[in-house]
Structure to design on (340 residues):
């Protein structure tokens, strides 16, 4: 086998594709299942306190594992980056959703959070030397939002809340979605340690510490005792710690580096489908024809975004190859002229 036949890179390419597929499966399925786990965890554990302990423990495990495997000690600048990303994603994104659901119907909060992919596409476009999205991407985003709106339905938007909508509270998840998108884009392009595990652990440590600060300011520790934690809440917390944080969040950070923001953010459309199916299978929640139709619409939007992003990457690679060939041809032509 010669070095120039191109076969040497095929196993590596296949391995890379396998990792991307596994990461998408983790983000789609694991994060979708965390909705059910959160439901049980927050029954007897304060939400911000749970988030802080969850991410601190997961971050410490990832950090120590990465260092034991030979990762270099992070620099002060790398800690700064990790703190910014951890606070934006965990406290800004998750924290806003947790707080808003105390004042706004959960269906409306879920619909608002679904604008994350749109924020990410726009931010990735507006950044210096950003990527201009194809029209198909916007069509896919609109289709995903329409499917999610159909999934939630008008009844769910007002369920459990007869009072008038608290507009200020409803704006909190809008801000949280924006902060999550900013943190995701920043994480993709900001300098960070070479080890993805180390970087993720640092982000969780920083975000978990900030979460505990929010919990203390909210007075949660004063009203919490370990003895009051139920078995269901403990199981939900352990699932969130292992699968939600160690597996799901690590996979998401990997996807931000390995693929486009538009493709990585499609979790916001698929997660509700997984949550609804698990709610039907485990908690006995209803699964209607409208849900199945909405699932098909959402997956159609995801497919459009994925295909558009893949075509854009292939065209960019092809254009780059053509440009290099043109440069080589110009150089050879210049050498011929010089010889003459």
């Amino acid at each position: 086998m010669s070095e120039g036949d191109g076969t040497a890179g095929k196993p590596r390419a296949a391995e890379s594709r396998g990792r991307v597929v596994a990461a998408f499966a983790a983000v789609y399925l694991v994060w979708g299942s965390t909705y059910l786990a959160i439901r049980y965890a927050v029954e007897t554990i304060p939400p911000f306190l749970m988030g802080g302990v969850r991410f601190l423990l997961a971050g410490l495990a990832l950090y120590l594992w990465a260092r034991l495997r030979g990762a270099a000690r992070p620099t002060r600048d790398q800690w700064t980056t990790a703190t910014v990303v951890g606070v934006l994603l965990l406290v800004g994104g998750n924290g806003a959703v947790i707080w808003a659901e105390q004042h706004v119907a959960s269906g409306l909060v879920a619909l608002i959070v679904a604008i994350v992919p749109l924020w990410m596409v726009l931010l990735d476009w507006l950044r210096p030397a950003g990527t201009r999205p194809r029209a198909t991407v916007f069509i896919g985003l609109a289709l995903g939002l329409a499917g999610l709106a159909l999934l939630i339905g008008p009844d769910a938007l007002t369920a459990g809340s007869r009072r008038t909508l608290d507009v200020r509270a409803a704006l909190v998840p809008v801000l949280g979605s924006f902060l999550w998108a900013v943190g995701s884009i920043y994480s993709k392009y900001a300098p960070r340690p070479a080890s993805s595990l180390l970087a993720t652990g640092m982000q969780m440590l920083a975000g978990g510490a900030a979460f505990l600060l929010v919990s203390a300011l909210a007075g949660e520790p004063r009203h919490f005792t370990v003895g009051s934690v139920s078995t269901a809440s403990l199981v939900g917390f352990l699932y969130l710690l292992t699968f939600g944080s160690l597996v799901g969040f690590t996979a998401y950070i990997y996807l931000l580096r390995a693929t486009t923001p538009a493709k990585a953010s499609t979790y916001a459309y698929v997660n509700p489908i997984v949550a609804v199916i698990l709610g039907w299978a485990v908690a006995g929640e209803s699964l209607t024809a409208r849900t199945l139709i909405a699932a098909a619409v959402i997956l159609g939007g995801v497919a459009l975004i994925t295909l558009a992003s893949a075509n854009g990457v292939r065209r960019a690679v092809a254009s780059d190859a053509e440009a290099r060939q043109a440069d080589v041809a110009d150089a050879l032509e210049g050498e011929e002229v010089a010889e003459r």
Summary: Residues 1-8, 159-163, 316-332 have pLDDT under 50 and may be disordered.
